[in-house]
Design goal:
Elements lengths: L15 E6 H15 L8 H14 L7 E8 L4 H12 L3 E6 L32 H11 L6 E5 L6 H10 L4 E6 L7 H5 L9 E4 L4 H4 L25
Length: 236
């Protein structure tokens, strides 16, 4: 079921929502596949849905009223239509936006060709970010008295919206759920892993084998090198 963000927020005294950035998960799958020399790493969305439920129970949070998967796609693509259908079967409502609308802007006066290779041998696509849509969703949810929000994403652009969301309402709870070694390294610098930090962190690496089709990222702590490009956390 496609459900835009503006209609995904029922009017209830307490709103508990899971927001999943599917583009961010696509990127981490590609990064892990490259590091592990695999053809593909499949994100198990049905198991992710169950894991988010379990994290809410483990942390004494209320169950989610709705789980929304944000998708950047060309809806005319049959493959991407199958992907959104799979998300619906896995327990997610979907918010599908046109992929070109999610390209990260280049500096003023510059063209995408200045930054992305467009040769016959290699055609790079511009970077995609759903951070603005996630931040907008947080703004919609801020009007509730006791919202409890989990966001599955890696982008540091979410830091200030999430921090402000938590600080403005002492009854609100907000958490980032992701694979720790693949976060933007600035998250560690601001204190995300500290117990007292207003934004809670749920480390999905502890459950990576079930979420990534058998790829166990916990092995990196025993000497295996699982690294994301540009991530300072992978050097810890």
């Amino acid at each position: 079921m496609n459900r835009p963000l503006t209609s995904s927020i029922p009017k209830q005294p307490q709103q508990n929502v899971n927001l999943v950035d599917c583009n961010s998960l696509l990127e981490v799958g590609d990064a892990i596949a490259a590091a592990e020399q695999l053809d593909r790493v499949q994100i198990e969305y049905a198991k992710l849905s169950e894991r988010l439920k379990a994290e809410r129970v483990r942390n004494y949070w209320s169950p989610a009223n709705v789980s929304i998967a944000l998708v950047s796609a060309n809806e005319e693509s049959e493959g991407q239509q199958r992907f959104t259908a799979m998300l619906s079967k896995s327990g997610f409502d979907t918010d599908v936006s046109f992929y070109r609308d999610n390209y990260v802007s280049v500096p003023a006066g510059r063209q995408p060709a200045d930054f992305y290779e467009q040769s016959k041998e290699r055609r790079q696509r511009p970077l995609i970010s759903l951070a603005s849509r996630l931040a907008y969703a947080l703004g919609l949810l801020a009007r509730y008295e006791e919202p409890q929000i989990i966001i599955v994403a890696h982008a540091f652009e979410l830091y200030w919206p999430m921090l402000n969301f938590a600080q403005r309402n002492p009854q609100a709870r907000v958490a980032l759920a992701y694979f720790a070694n693949f976060l933007d390294s600035r998250w560690k610098q601001v204190g995300l892993f500290d117990d007292s930090f207003p934004i809670k962190f749920f480390n999905l690496e502890e459950h990576s084998a079930e979420l990534l089709g058998g790829v166990d990222l916990r092995g990196s702590a025993r000497g295996r090198s699982i690294r994301s490009p540009g991530s300072g956390l992978s050097r810890l």
